[in-house]
Design brief:
Protein name (chains A, B): Glutathione S-transferase
Distance between the termini of chain A: 36 Å
Radius of gyration of chain A: 17 Å
Pfam family, one (chains A, B): GST_N_3
Subunit structure (chains A, B): Homodimer.
Largest sheet of chain A: 4 strands, mixed
Order of helices and strands of chain A: EHEHEEHHHHHH
Shape of chain A: globular
Oligomer: homodimer
Structural class of chain A: alpha+beta
Strand content of chain A: 5-15%
GO molecular function, one term (chains A, B): glutathione transferase activity
CATH topology of the largest domain in chain A: Glutathione S-transferase Yfyf (Class Pi), Chain A, domain 2
Number of domains of chain A: 2
Keywords (chains A, B): Transferase
Chain lengths: 230, 230
């Protein structure tokens, strides 16, 4: 049994929840507010970040990259053709590049700002940096998202899925990030039909269902968030 | 034959040069100033970052994570017990965690600032953000380095190498980052004997030699940089 230390609106944590479900595994959850740097989290992960995954009484697996590789190395054989990592080293490199693009670059330049300014800061005390969103951070994120959407649109127009002909970890990395931005109504769907159609396919997967019914107290989801036919 | 697109003082590029040498492969180099966003780089890697590795006329392998996995997947069997990725999934997760710590967190919080402010900005035109170093960025980096050194000291005091009993990719990731900071005289060696002794072992590896004789025009290396007995 896995234990997942996570926050419901941490995009990397959402990615791990999705891929655990896709690999047919199960987990119990420990909700964590990473900005509080709780002792139980720091003892598992000195970086103080989520997600952290623990299998039974094994060591802590820290961060989405090490977790996805561990999951594939220990469960990949069992899921057979539903495996989310391609076989060929070149295709694997492309999948890993796009996982890092989504959870790294896209998160740093776009979604990370949106989640921090509009969700985390509502829950943080002022002494820890909480309070009103920083409008200049949001402005930058909202300008940046168009460049990323255009690139994702280019990719899914030329391939069946984000990193190639088969569904891969890259699709779930991007879906996890977009789902957080979409909750906040921050995704300009109208400008990129190809991304919208790809995301509609992702939304219809059973692994995404639990996420689409999640709510933040006092902050309803955007109209598109749970709608499979948005 | 590999072609490596890199910058001599990009820590992630240094990491790739080190592990290619450790895996007994060879490469021809294409020097790139990533801040110029040259067309030949953007065509290979839409993120515009180095390192990018290309094998013969294969696709571009972008970024240190995808590159290390590719190298291990295609060459790991051949290097046998000099392989830099452990066998067990749990040990692999620990190696990957520390590679990400070094090239990600440590670079973002410390070495990336030092390299950008003191090396890249000397070569960048003012219109592209070049010029005098930003002293507040350097101050933050110099404060942060102590926390990281303490953590690295704790790790190498309790293990033979950074991520466990065997030399791994994690050691080269950290050595690559520290080598850039050390060139600038920015590593407080005196405060962490264990890290210093570990780095002395790393420095004596043939793969590190070419790097230790590199120089930036008009900016000599620190006294400790090339000294094996610093």
């Amino acid at each position: 049994m896995f234990t997942l230390y996570h926050h419901p609106f941490s995009p990397s944590s959402r990615f791990v929840r999705l891929i655990i479900a896709e690999y047919g595994a199960d987990f119990q959850e420990e909700l964590v507010n990473p900005w509080e740097r709780p002792q139980k989290l720091l003892l598992l992960n000195a970086a103080g970040t989520v997600p952290v995954l623990v299998e039974n009484d094994g060591p802590a697996l820290c961060g989405p990259g090490p977790i996805l590789e561990y999951l594939d190395e220990t469960r990949g054989y069992a899921v057979a053709d539903r495996r989310l990592m391609p076989d060929h080293p070149e295709a694997r490199a492309e999948t890993r590049r796009l996982v890092e693009w989504a959870l790294g670059k896209f998160d740093r330049e776009v979604v990370g700002h949106m989640v921090r300014e509009r969700i985390y800061k509502q829950a943080m005390p002022r002494s820890a940096g909480g309070g009103e969103p920083d409008s200049s951070a949001l402005r930058v994120a909202r300008a940046n998202i168009h460049h990323h959407m255009k690139y994702f649109g280019y990719l899914v127009a030329s391939r069946r899925w984000l990193s190639g002909d088969r569904l891969s970890f890259a699709d779930f990395a991007l879906a996890a990030e977009l789902s957080c931005a979409d909750y906040l109504g921050e995704v300009p769907w109208a400008s990129e039909d190809n991304v919208k159609n790809w995301y509609a396919r992702m939304k219809s997967r059973p692994s995404m269902r639990p996420m689409l019914s999640e709510k933040i107290l006092g902050m309803p989801a955007s109209q598109t968030y749970a709608d499979l036919d948005f």
